[in-house]
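Recap from last week: sequence in, structure out.
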Amino acid sequence: MAGGPRTPDASGPPKIRVMIVDDIAETRDNLEKLLFFEKDIEVVAKAMTGREALALAKQHRPDVVLMDINMPDMDGIAATEALLSQVPEAQVIMMSVQGEQDYLRRAMLAGAREFLPKPIGAEELYSAIRHVHRLATTQRRYVPTSSGAITGGESDEGVAQGQIIAVFSPKGGAGTSSIACNLAVALRQLTAKKVALVDGNLTFGDIGVIMNLVSTKTVADLANRIGEIDRDLLNDVLATHASQVKILLAPPNPQTGELVTADHLRTILELMKKEFDYIVVDTQSSFQDRALAVLDMADRIVALMTLEIPCIKNIKLFLEVAELLEYPKEKTVLVLNKADNRLGMRVENVEENIQHKVALQIANAGHEMTLAVNQGVPLVIAKRDHSTSKDIFALAKMLSSGLSARTAGAPKQEKAPEKSGLFGRLLARR
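Predicted structure tokens:
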């Protein structure tokens, strides 16, 4: 094992320095063996207790710490909190045989970047280490204007970059695919600018069905030629909808979808930012690598919530994680989808519980939306004057111009208050 501070490697860029913390010697050795042949990763220290990990972390200053959650003297949660207070540049990946949501939440609150359930596969381990290291070394691009409009960063040449809008919900069934499709069309009709729609659900994508598009070319074709990707290849793969929205479809089957990595998505989205004014991404309900890649790159995250207890619970967890990931408050736009005052729950009560304001409500139109999906015609085209279509256009206007939106049937929303309670205890340690 290498020791001491980082020294430049004349043969290439510095390696990712990893410390393994686990009270089981066999586990430590197995993880070290898995990493031994990775040319860009080196194990600089191994610790069998939380207290030993603190001492070694200060000595070796690792980039990434693989931390077991269950240890006798000091558990991984406490060790992570203490370690990040002394070595704040470290990125912690929590490991546990337990995979429950409560463990994920506790790990993220402590400052962990990722959570890996044991046993850990080799590719999963490599991907997690490289992902969290990249997060630490890549500056996120997000520039809000004084009016709240999303504005792009600029490339080194000063060319304006397009905006990525991730439509996301931590709970399936919230309607992300339908809203993403309708939002993309609304942006195109409202601004007349270049708009692209990306199916980010690489395993079970539905954008092609909703938009009634059949194409043999998908994101997998770009991933397979990622080393030679350029605007010509991109435009060759993109399908064109009747609304003139360009669409990047998901792979035809789950097996192919699994071959598209987070790095592939980052490269593709970076190129699309040079070609389009707005890129709307239907983002998978997950905190896994590929979903996080989209959320990290997004200029705005349209977080969809419904008035169902499981969805509200998951939205609250997502907002906590978003703060731990150091996303600016303005980056997340909380939207109530399928809004219906007959569901026995007041929006004001939900806002108080999750400590976050709902920026806009989209009226419930279950029958009309289902009919539009089955017909393959977005609701904003089929029934532009429908109340739900008007709400989606209001969302498009808010995102494109930064103008404040009004909720359906409610007064103008004020700026979300400063977070308190649980959110006040969250510490940005990275």
